[in-house]
């Protein structure tokens, strides 16, 4: 269903219980990603965000990479819970969106505008965050539940090798998604008066 922007914003949640089904076609998921990448703003119109959509076997392969990587560094007794979480909250989904930032563009902008060189990495992360939010909200609006994960930088090199991605693509986050199996639970809100100040 298509909600108003305000309705979609209020409805978006984190889902850890998802299945490997989708209520929409793969082409519609691709359209969501393409719409976000084309239309989300960026500082200096730099368009630094890069997105990789993993479906089917590629989705499963990503989470196997995560498990293989963590198994080398997580104590054996603790890895049991780690593997269970990955298998039942992420790998069990329909697909994963990977968010990258192109560091070549960031460095080129730093050279071209030295007065702002310290800000370009920060602005790059801001545009990545906007892409994450937009895709997350659009996926949920289409009936898919998602969460945002950060197994980078541990998996960065293997991800780039597996899908032949450029070295200058810096992995920011991983977003597994699928049809929700159960609700996201209640969300607690801090008082708005502590978070918003209005002056006239």
Automatic annotation (TrEMBL):
Subcellular location, principal: cytoplasm
Listed PANTHER family: FATTY ACID REPRESSION MUTANT PROTEIN 2-RELATED (PTHR43035)
Organism: Bacteroides faecalis
Residues covered by the Nitroreductase domain: 10-178
InterPro entries attached to this UniProt entry: Frm2/Hbn1 (IPR033877), Nitroreductase (IPR029479), Nitroreductase-like (IPR000415)
Keyword terms: Cytoplasm, Oxidoreductase
GO biological process, one term: cellular response to oxidative stress
SUPFAM superfamilies tied to this protein: FMN-dependent nitroreductase-like
Name of the protein in its database record: Nitroreductase
Entry's localization field: Cytoplasm
Short name of one Pfam family: Nitroreductase
Entry annotated with the keyword Oxidoreductase: yes
GO molecular function, one term: oxidoreductase activity
Lineage: Bacteria, Pseudomonadati, Bacteroidota, Bacteroidia, Bacteroidales
GO annotation, cellular component aspect: cytoplasm
Domain of life: Bacteria
């Amino acid at each position: 269903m298509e909600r108003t922007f305000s309705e979609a914003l209020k409805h978006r949640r984190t889902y850890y219980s998802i299945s490997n089904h989708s209520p929409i076609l793969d082409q519609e998921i691709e359209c969501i990603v393409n719409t976000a990448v084309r239309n989300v703003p960026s500082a200096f119109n730099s368009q630094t965000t890069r997105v990789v959509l993993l479906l089917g076997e590629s989705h499963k392969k990503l989470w196997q990479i995560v498990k293989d990587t963590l198994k080398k560094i997580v104590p054996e007794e603790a890895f049991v819970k780690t593997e269970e979480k990955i298998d039942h909250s992420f790998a069990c989904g329909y697909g994963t969106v990977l968010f990258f930032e192109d560091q070549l563009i960031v460095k080129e902008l730093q050279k071209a505008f030295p007065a702002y060189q310290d800000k370009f990495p920060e602005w790059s992360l801001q545009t990545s965050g906007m892409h994450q939010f937009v895709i997350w909200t659009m996926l949920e609006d289409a009936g898919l539940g998602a969460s945002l994960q950060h197994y980078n930088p541990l998996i960065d090199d293997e991800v780039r090798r597996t899908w032949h991605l450029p070295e200058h693509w810096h992995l920011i986050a991983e977003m597994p998604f699928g049809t929700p199996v159960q609700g996201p639970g209640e969300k607690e809100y801090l008082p708005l008066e502590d978070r918003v100040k209005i002056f006239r």
